[in-house]
Amino acid sequence: MRPPRRPILGRYRAEWGSVAGVLPYYRDVMFVGHLGAGLAAKRLAPEARLGVLFLAAMWLDALLWVFVLLGLESVHFPSSLGGGRYLTFTFPYSHGFVASLAWSAIGVGLVRMSGRSLRAGLVVGAAVFSHFLLDALVHVAGLPLLGDASYHVGLGLGRHAGPELAVECALVGLGWWLYCGAPGSARSVRRWGLAAAPPFAIRFRPTASTRFGSGLLAI
To answer: Which residues is 144 bridged to in the sheet?
Structure first.
């Protein structure tokens, strides 16, 4: 059972270390796997730009940092990121189940407004919602169905670095394989460059603390 907490919006809580023995924190969350979803989506909608599909697959994370800066969502820091104590989030507006469906619908609408086909819009919307599904595999504290007080879903794969990394590698490998069969996909050197990028990202992927800082700087 998740311990009760009072969310501190838009800033971190160092005092969360006091409950570290109650709630397991996590540091490494789904990252490269989302890029695999973007690659796979290209097979379903060849007319969509790969960059747009990558953006769609990572869109909920981009929204998270915007909402953190606006004071609507929170990143909770324990007193130490070592020893199995990691970050948790209060993010019902960017990563909630209902919110994810809404952002997916908005994605479909934006693609249709740009003049693309309904198929392309639906694939972009699916790429947006895939972020919720993949995050639900790894998040320990869980993702809310509606508000932060609602039921949370999460398999907690992030507690186990080996299996979590294997899942991410499988996702990006499958995504690349599907992408290679898409009309208009990159060829030759560019294709193999895309194949090399995910392993590089896995090797040097940011921890939650550096991702938090880089997200603020990017915005």
So the answer is: 152
